[in-house]
Amino acid sequence: MYSRLDHPPVRFDDYRPLLDPKLADELAAVAGELRKLRILHLNSTATGGGVAEILQSMVPLGNSLGIKTERIVINPDAAEFFDVTKKIHNMLQGSEGELSPEELDIYFSCIQRVADDMKAKSLTADVWFVHDPQLLPLARLLPKKEGETWIWICHIDLTTPNKSVLDALMPLTQDYDQLIFSQQAYVPKDLGDKVPVLIAPPAIDPLTIKNTPMDMDQAQKIVSAMGIDTSRPLITQVSRFDLWKDPWGVIDAFRIARESTPGLQLALLGLSQATDDPEGAKVYNTVADHAAGDPDIHLYFDPSEMPVSVDEVVNAVQMASKVLMQKSTREGFGLTVTEGMWKGKPVIGGDAGGIRVQINNGVSGFLVSSPEECAQRLVELLQDEALSARIGVAAKESVRQLFLLPRLALDYLTVALAHVNGRLPATGGD
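Structure (tokenized):
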């Protein structure tokens, strides 16, 4: 019902040149106080999506700091489980509808069996980090042992949740010692004050294949092998084929911008197929219909068709693009925004959720609310190289200061240490 994942080791010292020395020293000091403890991260899928990406790097970073850090993913035995949790995810982000008694039973009974398996195998940890709604019931279903700390981390946009699902799930948060949200706007207003809240925006790992510098010649070689004409300008959105990412609006914006920029090409790169997202293929098919066979619109869905690894493809396409987009209508954070900014690229993002946290509008990128506005910004950036370069420089520096993985690790470990030492952490509320 669950599996332990192994990740390649990393060296904390390799991050130091990229960090503010004060942050690096503080992280090392906090980690030093936690070295006798075991930390466990739990999430629903091994690959695909921002949470999996964060944990693929967070776990080996914790171990490089001398903390025994492990990661568990669940293997639900009900085929419908991820259909239900995807519906829960969509409803928490504002979709209409209700969960049926049958769906709720699938959700809770499956997690109960996961919990039973964990109990049978005596799974233990000093600090449990449980990520997102898929696993939220675990703290209620597993008997909490003396000295354990349970922390629930919500990575999704809860600004306009469906009240019925919020009412069904939020009482489960009271079984945790600490809650972490990506921003203050996501904290439900009726959550109460029984559990302390920390605000900790996500971050990217600058040392992964996807985020380390790639030579432009290499990038163009990969992009060319994907069928993209490197002699013509390219704009790209990297994201799962998901209704909240608004790929249809991206296509509409591209078509408007192309009228002013002959030869413009669009790539929609949706190679991240998370096992807990069963809607991807359906959304892809509707996007393909919307693209209507346009030879300047390149859609990518199947990782097996790529000339190199997915991470290399993402890096290459982002490097080869003139402008990157993330036109989401709901977005917990949007790591692809951070990735693009880290590469010094101008990014146009939807004026939503965590994208607002990352982009200082007009300074480190642009926020837009419609295809028409998106197209206008696209044309500005494509026609004004100085503007594009200036925004790219500001974007990269913003990520360096605020959105690199060691800062997020410090957030998580500081709050864990506060509980271990019996101190209440500072809340993220006003």
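The longest strand covers residues 68-74. The first helix runs from residue 21 to 33.
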